[in-house]
Amino acid sequence: MKLPPFEYACPTTIAEAVTLLAAHDGEAKPLAGGQSLVPMLAFRVAAPALLVDLRKLAELRQIKIGDDGITLGAMVRWRDILDDARLKTAHPLLVAAVEHVAHYQIRNRGTVGGSMAHADPAAELPGVAVTCEAKIAVVGRSGARLIEAANFFHGPLTTALKPDEIITEIRLPAWPAQRRFGFAEFSRRRGDFAMAAAALFYDEEAGRAKNAHVGAIGVADRPIRLAAVEAAINGGAIDEATIAKAEAAAAASVDPPTDIHASGAYRKALIGVMVERALRSAAA
Ligand SMILES: Cc1cc2nc3c(=O)[nH]c(=O)nc-3n(C[C@H](O)[C@H](O)[C@H](O)COP(=O)(O)OP(=O)(O)OC[C@H]3O[C@@H](n4cnc5c(N)ncnc54)[C@H](O)[C@@H]3O)c2cc1C
User: Fold this and answer.
1) Which of 12, 127, 141, 171 is deepest in the core (most CB within 10 A)?
2) Cβ(41)–Cβ(18) under 8 Å?
3) For 106-160, what is each residue's pLDDT tens digit?
4) d(Cα 97, Cα 103) in Å, to the nearest integer?
5) CB of 32 closer than 6 A to ligand 1?
6) Ligand 1 atom nearest to 40, measured from its CA
7) What φ, ψ does residue 60 adopt, rounded to 5°?
8) 36 Cα to the center of ligand 1, angstroms
9) CB of 253 shorter than 6 A to ligand 1
10) Using CA atoms, how far apart are residues 34 and 106, in angstroms rounded to an integer?
11) Spatial strand order in the sheet of 7-9
């Protein structure tokens, strides 16, 4: 289908972009890679009067790695993450997750800010952001603010963003070199959205796991942390008994809906298996 008619603007500063969004009172939308927004226009799921293209905002394209963590500018593309050799050690969980995002063509255009704002419950980056306690930096007409990833996602395609706000950065806390992590995803074909996925990490002290963070993707209306699984992992060795406990706790923690891709019962079992696989990979 052809796109509905819309006005187009391509600002060269963040301030100009915010002014344009604010002036249109909810009738304007930022355009990043267009990989989700353009199909939504075609299907008439969205029909904004104005698209504010962010492509000329060079300051949103940076990846910064420092002692205080990793900062991804909102216009960083999936391809940029996979091409940045520093991230393989600076944040291996992020890289492992992004390897599952979509297909080459989409990875060449799709951005991290677009993915966060789109808030698909089956998307990988929102899941990593919630698991790692990322902060989302946004700017709007009333200034800049930081939103905890756990408070950012309100449901499918719904976030804490106000209509005049744009995401500028996603900030991930620093990643200790010895940290253990795992990412496991099941989808119908490689590159499809996850039917279920688990992202997890923990630190080790004297052979015991501590500081476990476990996130589940595709099994609720937003990415979630699995507190019962974290409790099952913390304080012990990652042996067969712990893995079995974690798998059972994961399945018991969620109540996924049934949709055209899978039944709720199937997804419930699947998240257990994803946690089991991610934990085995972390322990190995
Ligand atoms: C066939 C196909 C398969 C895909 N598979 C996956 C997958 O497996 N995993 C996955 O995670 N994604 C997948 N995607 C989605 C893809 O990753 C998108 O690129 C991404 O979700 C949106 O990023 P974008 O830059 O294209 O955003 P756009 O499509 O440009 O925008 C998406 C939404 O975000 C808003 N927005 C964009 N940037 C900002 C900003 N900086 N601040 C505020 N709002 C903003 C837009 O207004 C719009 O509402 C797939 C897409 C397709 C078409």
Assistant:
1) 127
2) no
3) 999 999 999 999 999 999 999 999 999 999 999 999 999 999 999 999 999 999 9
4) 13
5) yes
6) 29
7) -90, 5
8) 4
9) no
10) 9
11) 7-9, 50-53, 28-31
Phi, psi for 178 (deg, rounded to 5): -90, 0
CA–CA separation, 11 and 14 (whole Å):
8
d(CA 131, CA 282): 15
3-state secondary structure the chain: CCCCCCEEECCCCHHHHHHHHHHCCCCEEEECCCCCHHHHHHCCCCCCCEEEECCCCHHHHCEEEECCEEEEECCCEHHHHHHCCCHHHHCHHHHHHHCCCCCHHHHCCCEHHHHHHHCCCCCHHHHHHHHCCCEEEEEECCEEEEEEHHHHEEECCEECCCCCCEEEEEEECCCCCCCEEEEEEECCCCCCCCCEEEEEEEEEECCEEEEEEEEEECCCCCCEECHHHHHHHCCCCCCHHHHHHHHHHHHHHCCCCCCCCCCHHHHHHHHHHHHHHHHHHHHC
Residue whose tokens read 């999936």: 78
How remote is the CA of residue 119 from the centroid of ligand 1, in Å?
8
* C-alpha separations of 193 from 5, 99, 117, 181, 232 in Å: 29, 12, 16, 21, 28
Residue type, 170: I
Task: Kindly report the pTM of this predicted structure.
Answer: 0.97
Residue ranges in the chain modelled with pLDDT below 70: none
Partner residues linked to 186 by β-bridges: 196
Which residues make beta-bridge pairs with 50?
7, 28
Return the bridge partners of 196, or none: 186
Mutate to test the pocket of ligand 1, among 8, 10, 36 (most ligand atoms within 8 A of CB): 36
Residue nearest to atom 53 of ligand 1 (CA): 35
The rounded Å distance from CA 240 to ligand 1 centre is: 38
* Nearest residue (CA) to ligand 1, atom 48: 37
